[in-house]
Structure formats: structure tokens, C-alpha cells
Amino acid sequence: MTTLRIESPKRDASAKRGWSGFFPYYAGFPDRFASELIASATLDREAVVWDPWNGSGTTTYAASSLGLNAVGGDINAVMLIVARARLLPVSEADSLVPVASRVIEAAARSRVKARQDDPLALWFDAPTTARLRALDHAIRSHLVSSDTVRLAPSSLLQKMSGLAASLYVSLFHLCRSKLSELQSSNPTWYRRELAGNSRISITRDDLNRTFLALVTSMKDALVSVPTMQFQERGHVSLYMGDTANSHHTDRLFDFVLTSPPYCTRIDYAASTRIELAIVGPWLAIDVNDLSRAMIGTTKVPRDEPSPRKAWGSECIGFLKKVRDHTSKASRSYYYKNHLDYFDKMAKSMGSISSRLKKDAVAVLIVQDSYYKDVHNPLPLIITEMAAQVGLSQIDQKDFNSVRSMSGINSSSTIYREHKRPVESVIVFRKGD
Predict the structure, then answer these.
(1) For the residues of 395-417, what is the DSSP string, one character each?
(2) Residue 57, SS3?
(3) Does the reported pTM lie above 0.85?
(4) Rg of the chain over CA atoms, in angstroms?
(5) Cβ neighbours of residue 396 closer than 8 Å, sequence gap 6 or more
(6) 3-class DSSP state for residue 200?
(7) H or E segment at 34?
(8) Phi, psi of 67 (to 5 degrees)
(9) Could you tell me if 175 and 132 are in contact, meaning their C-beta atoms sit under 8 angstroms apart?
(10) Model confidence pLDDT, tens digit, residues 306-333
(11) Does residue 49 contact residue 253 with C-beta atoms inside 8 Å?
(12) Residue 296 above 90 pLDDT?
């Protein structure tokens, strides 16, 4: 394999424009970064690219655009819908607005009523919740065939069409735009409700007009994508699964490009709480259970794992510093929280290694961080974990990160002075 072209993995302004702008994800990397890196790997046309933390689908989108087959997994059903929408071919762009118009008409005829326990009712009043739920129901009724409606959530998501997923993305954006005043300083968190327990009210006309405008914007963005990216596109398979706990395919992969959750206590389930409020009821998703299952959860594990020598000396040393730190709750909460993270990460590295062909390459984007004044050398920790499961580091490029979640909590910055996190692009090769 030739030398990989590794650019900065940090999202730039281009990620907020055009087709890519409809698929924001805090921990994602740019389309160009993924495309350049995968193209430089000079993979055979029969090769399969895998991203076990596929998120909004940058890896699967880039690989498919290059004519390569790809597989993407994520534990969060919302991200699978987003990744599916991102793959919508330009040939279907002209269908978006007519289909959205039919969905609006069907929603107007719907007799769906808002339930008191509807998660959307956290933010919207009863009439608005009912109108949003009617749009949700109309999308499923008209774009998901009757023989798939009764399938398990994971199977239903695999069979969801790109058109249906795209309309859901527009519905996601609609709700987020109406809840913009609830956005906190943390970009992954929305407050649960307005002051005084008030709820947002949106008329049917405003709702339909906004929804149709968003779908139209998606259509315009899609047709502006260079057509060369859509010639001989590779097939993409998406699945819902937890990388840390099980294998969801028995196939072997030729190349991995992924970014595992950073060890910065981001609640990725909470960051998609609005989207989960829309699709969670019919996918039977419990947000708290989802959050607890994720790598990097902010919740203390029910079953506390024990540190293992196989995690590596850097990991064990860091954990000891967290446990023995004098700050409040270091031993009772933060130590246990980090144990859960590294336990899941070690299992995930084993899962990745077991799914790679001999001599195949895995590229991971990893960011270091700090617990109080204690440096968390996550790139080095993951490198040591990888070595334990047969993955040898063959390259690494580091990029200073100008912005990170660590700067949001002003009370914690006293520990770090002027230190900035570093994002590392680490390249591994699978041995015997």
C-alpha cells in the first residue's frame, strides 16, 4: 500500500455548507479528509471499507463515492438514518419535493393524536406535538413498505429508503430550528424545556412551510454535488450495533477508517435527544439505556469492570492518577466512569482486529484530553491496546485542535492553563 494522504481531520467551514451541511455531527471529520485518505490507499475494486463508529456516515459516503463497497455501524439509530440519507443518489433529487408534498397531505388527513408521554411534548405543546407526530407517521406509512413495518428496529433501519431517511433528516432540522433557543453553551446539549414550563407552539401552515423549505434546500444541495462523485457508486450496508460487545458480521474487511468516541464525557445520546424523540417511540429506544451502552457514557457503570494488564501501562497509570486525585468525586465517580470507557474501548479494539484481513490497515482518529490537571494520552493508550490484539502502529500524524469540549466548562480550565488537545491520525496494520 502506498503512503496515505493524511490531512487535518478537523471539520472546517465547508462541512456546514451544501450537501454536507445537512449532516452535522460533533465528532465527525470532513468529507475531503476521508476521500483523500481512502483514495490514497489504492484499494482493489472488490475491497470493503468499514467504519464501526460510522456516525453521520462520512466514511461510508466517501468510500461509496469512490466506487468502493462499505459497511458502517452505529449504536445510535438516529445516526443510521442520517448516514442513509447522506447516500441518496442525485438521480432521486427531483423526487424529494413531490414526495414531501404527498407526506404533508397525508399528515393533514391523519388522526394521530399526541400522547401525554410523547417525548416531543418535553418541548412542544399538544397540538404541535400531534402535527409533528403526524408528519413522522406519514413518512413511515408512505415510504416504508407494509412488509417491513413489523420488523425489528435494526432490520427496519437497514431497509429504510434514502428518500425516507432524507425526509427524516429534514424533520430533524425542523425541530432543531424551532428549539434553537434551548441550545446551551455545550453544542451537544439542549435544555429539556423553556422557562416556566412553557411549550413551543407551531401552526400547521408554519410547520408544513418550514418542512417543505428544508426538503427543497436538500434537493438543491444534492443536485449541486459534482456528478462524478456518483458514478459507479459502491454498495453500502448499514447496521445498528455496539462495537464493544459483539460482532455484527462474519465478513472480513480490507480497510477501516473510524473515529472512536473521545474520552471527554460527551453524552452522544443526549446530543441526539431531539432526533430520538421523533424516532425513538417506534424504534423502542430508551435514551437512558442507549446512553449507558455507549462508549464514553457519562453514567457510572452498573457492573464496575476491573483494570486489566492488557489495557497497557499508560492506561493503568492514568487510571491510578484519576483514582488518587484529590478533587471531589474522583474515586467515587470519575474513576469508575473512566474504567467503563477503557473496558469498552479495549473490547472494541479486539473486535476491530478480528474483522480485519491479514495486512489490512485501520486508521483511527483519536484525541487526547485532560482529567483536571492529569493528561489522558488516549492515542498512546489505544496504540498499546491495539498492540495487544495484533495491530501494529505504522504511522501517526498529530494536529493541534483549536476547539474542544474541554474549554466549555470554565471551572475546569484552571487545571489546564494553555494546553490544547491534539488530534492524532493513527495508522495500524493487522499482523498474523
Answers:
(1) EEEEEE-S--GGGT-GGGGGGTT
(2) coil
(3) yes
(4) 22
(5) 379, 383, 424, 425, 426, 427
(6) strand
(7) helix 31-40
(8) 85, 15
(9) yes
(10) 999 999 999 999 999 999 999 999 999 9
(11) yes
(12) no
